[in-house]
Amino acid sequence: MSFTIADLKKGERGIITDISSNDIPLKLLEMGCLPGNTVELIQVAPFSDPMYLDINGSHLAIRKETAALIVIEKELNE
Amino acid sequence: MSKQINVALIGNPNTGKTSVFNALTGLNQKVGNYPGITVEKKEGLCKLPRGVKAHIIDLPGTYSLNASSVDENVVIELLLNKNDKDFPDVAVLISDVENLKRNLLLFTQIKDLKIPTILVINMADRMNRKGISLNIPLLEQRLNTSIALVSTRKNEGIQHLKDLIMDYKELSLKPCLDTSTIDAEYFKNLKNAFPNQDLFKLWLVITQDVNFGNVERQEIDLSQFKTKSHSELKRLQQKETIKRYQFINDVLKEGQTIDASKATGFRAKFDRILTHKVWGYVIFFIILLTIFQAIYDWASVPMDFIDSSFASLSDWIKNTFPPGIFTNLLAEGIVAGIGGIVIFIPQIAFLFLFISVLEESGYMSRVVFLMDRIMRRFGLSGKSVVPLISGTACAIPAIMATRNIENWKERLITILVTPFITCSARLPVYLIIIALVIPKGRFFGLSYQALTLMLLYLIGFGMAVFSAYILNRILKTKSKSFFVIEMPSYKIPLLKNVVITVVEKTRTFIFEAGRIILAISVILWVLASYGPGESFTNAETIVRGENPTLNTIELEDKIAAYKLEHSFIGVIGKTIEPAIKPLGYDWKIGIALVTSFAAREIFIGTLATIYSVGSADAKSGENTIKNKMAAEVYPDGSKVFTFASGISLLLFYAFAMQCMSTLAIVKRETNTWKWPLVQLFGMSSIAYIVALISFQLLK
């Protein structure tokens, strides 16, 4: 089973591995959501939606349904 | 000798582009619209050394040249059209030192269009605090450009930028990367089909079709060329984006060092509180309360002053100039009309002051984040919060602010319900009627009058949310939902930017809305001063005949009232009286109701015009609109403005769609008359029914 950004908990980090879903908007990629980049979950609104992320230095918020499309490799505890 | 240099400011949202624009042009700027669309077009003049002038356009913020909204489309259309009179001689790309990597994506695209480009690295004052250091000469060399390190906050680097603009001819035109490497064969075919065209430009034109489909084809006819499917093109665009980031990463690896240990975590500290699951909402609510309190309390002082000043000015004109038609037109039509416009200035200025501070500080994005989930339950988006809050100022900019809602259904619902929000045009109507019919006195230290106003705001907001919920059930538009919002870092708002926003928005209101209000006031005066048939022209003889015993003053009052009743406007009012009588209104209010369908704020102006036409004697001081309304009685001596008719009026104004300009904007934004008509009839029926029920229950 693959991890997505939606599975992250507050403060956890991961590395984006796959963005091949056709439903991921191009705008998100342009804002830095690309394979190899680290993503950290900074804050969640109630019901974990939307999610406030730091993707490679870009701070942005996306909805959980979009977050669930972005496959990541979870970073082990430092 | 002095030819103007055309300069286009381009950049991501939140990079301080507008601050740079303000620093270059000062107040020497003008805001208009692009022809045919409601995208704001900001341009200004900047004086350069040696008497040269630069014409500067502040283009809408965009993350890339792949347009996904009308605003972004403006950027690409300009940059692809060499024949446009605004086509830039030089592009100035504004980037933010903290987000250099992401900002450079757009930079590489513009460079690839072979437009001379200057790179501005803005907010340079934050470098130390964030532990960032840059190797400027290396960056200039690798990116083939000239760089200006700018801090608008400290007013540094602007002169250097001006020098660079002056010498734009020395800029390199070398592109950053070769897009054709993402699919060599495809681009080879493209080259063969259009040997005279620039490949990257062709590629942009082709891909715009995928994203938006609105860029004019210009001289390129693509119909003969066999292109690729949408998903194939999208995949290529992804590949292009990745390639651009590779290039940028390589450049920044050498040119930028970030010492994370030096970075201070203001953002994290603020975010922990401001986006907190409980405190975040509490703080937001307190901010809203403060705004309402301020508008009610602070704005009422200058408003009362304006109201009484115009009343005395009108009296002064009447007493000073020789009596006659022009004096009357001036005193009763024009001065009353202008007063009806000027009285809005304090509130509009206060509202835009708050909104621009919230936007500038970066707080607004946190509100969007907090509210998204809640708003979605009603078919709205977190981004609907900004239009709904702006709607408290005016529905027109609010509806224009819905453009950054990506999902069409969410956007449409936001557009449809925004006019329910209590806009500043309703405020004078509310204030004056509340003052007339709600008793003074306090409840736990809060005045009844302030509470009533708060309640009216809540009713408007509640109705907006409720109708959004219903519309969400009814509307069957399927559209992919997606939502991305940047969370900018917190900044102390720049005073200059806030002031310019407030001045600009107020000025626009006065000249745009003011024109209509003034015109209608004058038309009203004419309609009230002339009438059809015998009973109007012979008013004096008729009244004199009926009341032979009255003294002069009483007689003059009677004549004036009789004239008004038989003027054109009196006839209109009398005609609709049966329809509005069950709501508790007389024919004079009826006239104000009818004219307010042009714009709500006309209500007060109309009553002012009607009442000043209707009373021959004007004692100064006694002459404010409020006093005149309080003194209005039916022929049997009972008051016109009672608690029941007042509440009924308040509710009517809370729900009715009375604003031509809003309807026009909705037509433009939805591209059909269907939705504005739905608003006009839907909202006005709700208003009628609610006002009817409330008056019948309360009377």
UniProtKB/TrEMBL annotation, chain A:
Pfam families: FeoA. The keyword Iron applies. GO terms for molecular function: transition metal ion binding. Residues 3-74 form the Ferrous iron transporter FeoA-like domain. The keyword rRNA processing does not apply. Keywords: Iron. This is FeoA family protein. It comes from hydrothermal vent metagenome. The lineage of its organism: unclassified sequences, metagenomes, ecological metagenomes.
